[in-house]
């Protein structure tokens, strides 16, 4: 008797609450790449995976993967999302998708599948600890750059140290890669992190594509000096330059349709109340569905930074930049998702994602699709992040239907005739 989706949804919501307690910080959710709380998450998730007839393992990129092996085909359906969080996060971003995956495994525990079912919890999507997102999914997609192993966190630990301290082998991170002929599809359930589904009054959406994203580390250098004796005129104040720049970032974002431009991190040096800031490092996050618009915005902002620095006899530098181009989701897998939603008497909304997801990287190698859940209030990367238990129940029903539909397409007799 298939387990009922509402009961499974109650368990998913309760487990999100339980995992929220696995945090680096007291009284708020912060869980960065392979920090100790991630071990607690792995322990609890592994128990729930085993109860769902999934065999858990951790790869050398720190991804937790629960597998239900199939006797027919040595191919797999990957379902999941990420287990890390931003600082002071909500309790659903990432983990909700992994727990819905475990619930699917539970719901269809008695149904045989012609392929493996892998429920995956990626180790690092947000990029908080080492300023590099998608470490876990990059390893699975064979896109991990060995140079990343030497990146350091604010305490001087390298990525390699973090992997080794977690009891894993950085030298074997390549083993985490899945081959393209092994993966039938990757599907990521995730909160929308926006208002569209709530405004449409619908529980589920199918993502058509994910915006391109540029992430830069910038620096304004001026001249530090005594706050009490240095005249106001003629100062080369790095924080004043950065402030002017931040206003320009915001106005470009507001003037350009569909552009999102954000400075989220600022660090002034020497950061003393009675010293004119000599140096300021700041982040810049720019996103757009059209890569040309995004790249043009970056060029405009870099020219603006140089102009502001020059006018203040300072120096503007780009310390680091990395980017992901806009990606489209796989049409066939998305179509099957849409059909499964209709079969469950729901109406899907097709929408674009302004937020980045592991699906950005997975889509480079594997047929990838995303299922968005309605996001009450649309607030994310914040403790007020919410999800509706009834929407989770609908998502579980729809994804069970999707897995059954995919299984029909991959039954051995179908596969031999196709
Ligand atoms: O920044 C993002 O869009 C994602 O939450 N990492
Ligand atoms: Mn996030
Ligand atoms: Mn996320």
Summarize the structure.
With 418 residues, the protein is of the alpha+beta class.
Descriptors for this entry?
418 residues; alpha+beta; Aminopeptidase; Alpha-Beta Plaits; 2 domains; nine-stranded mixed beta sheet; five-stranded antiparallel beta sheet; 12 helices; 22% strand; binds (2S)-amino(hydroxy)ethanoic acid; binds manganese (II) ion
Could you characterize what this model shows?
The protein has two domains: about 5-210 and about 325-415, Zn peptidases (Aminopeptidase, 3-Layer(aba) Sandwich), CATH 3.40.630; about 215-325, Alpha-Beta Plaits (2-Layer Sandwich). About 35% of the residues lie in helices and about 20% in strands. It has twelve helices and 16 strands. Strands 1, 2, 3, 4, 5, 6, 14, 15 and 16 form a nine-stranded mixed β-sheet that branches. Strands 7, 9, 10, 12 and 13 form a five-stranded antiparallel β-sheet that branches. (2S)-amino(hydroxy)ethanoic acid binds near residues 125 and 356.
Could you outline the blueprint of secondary structure elements for this entry?
Elements (H helix, E strand, L loop, with lengths): L4 H16 L15 H16 L3 E4 L5 E5 L7 E7 L12 H13 L8 E7 L12 H6 L18 H7 L17 E9 L4 H5 L3 E7 L1 E10 L3 E2 L11 H18 L4 E3 L3 E4 L5 E2 L2 E10 L2 H21 L3 E10 L2 E2 L2 H13 L5 E5 L4 H5 L5 E6 L15 H21 L2 H6 L1
Helix pairs in contact: 1-3, 1-11, 2-3, 3-11, 7-8, 9-11
């Amino acid at each position: 008797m298939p387990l009922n989706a509402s009961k499974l949804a109650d368990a998913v919501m309760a487990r999100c609450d339980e995992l929220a307690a696995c945090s680096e910080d007291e009284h708020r959710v912060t869980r960065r790449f392979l920090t100790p709380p991630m071990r607690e998450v792995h322990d609890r998730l592994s128990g729930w995976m085993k109860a769902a007839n999934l065999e858990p393992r951790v790869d050398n990129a720190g991804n937790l993967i629960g597998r239900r092996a199939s006797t027919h085909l040595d191919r797999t359906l990957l379902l999941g999302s990420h287990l890390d969080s931003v600082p002071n996060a909500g309790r659903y971003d990432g983990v909700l998708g992994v727990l819905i995956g475990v619930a699917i495994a539970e719901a269809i525990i008695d149904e045989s599948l012609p392929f493996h079912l892998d429920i995956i919890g990626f180790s690092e999507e947000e990029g908080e600890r080492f300023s590099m997102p998608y470490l876990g999914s990059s390893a699975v997609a064979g896109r991990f750059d060995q140079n990343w192993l030497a990146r350091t966190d604010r305490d001087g630990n390298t990525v390699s140290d973090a992997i080794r301290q977690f009891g894993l082998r950085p030298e074997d991170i390549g083993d985490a890669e899945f081959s393209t002929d092994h993966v039938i599809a990757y599907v990521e359930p995730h909160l929308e992190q926006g208002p569209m589904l709530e405004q449409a009054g619908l529980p589920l959406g199918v993502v058509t594509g994910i915006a391109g994203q540029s992430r830069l580390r910038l620096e304004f250098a001026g001249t530090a000096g005594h706050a009490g004796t240095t005249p106001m005129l003629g100062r080369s104040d790095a924080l004043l330059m950065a402030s002017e720049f931040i206003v320009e970032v915001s106005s470009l974002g507001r003037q350009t349709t569909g552009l999102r431009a954000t400075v989220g991190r600022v660090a002034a040096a020497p950061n003393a109340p009675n010293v004119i800031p000599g140096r300021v490092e700041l982040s810049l996050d720019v996103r757009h569905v059209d890569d040309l618009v995004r790249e043009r915005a970056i060029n405009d902002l870099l020219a603006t930074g140089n102009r502001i620095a020059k006018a203040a006899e300072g120096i503007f530098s780009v310390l680091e930049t990395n980017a992901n181009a806009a990606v489209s989701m796989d049409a066939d897998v998305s179509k099957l998702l849409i059909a499964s939603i209709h079969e469950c008497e729901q109406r899907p909304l097709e929408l674009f994602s302004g937020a980045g997801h592991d699906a950005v990287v997975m889509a480079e190698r594997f047929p990838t699709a995303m299922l968005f859940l309605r996001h009450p209030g649309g607030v994310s990367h914040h403790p007020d992040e919410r999800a509706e238990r009834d929407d989770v129940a609908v998502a579980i029903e729809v994804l069970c239907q999707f897995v059954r539909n995919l299984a029909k397409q991959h039954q051995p007799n179908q596969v031999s005739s196709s």
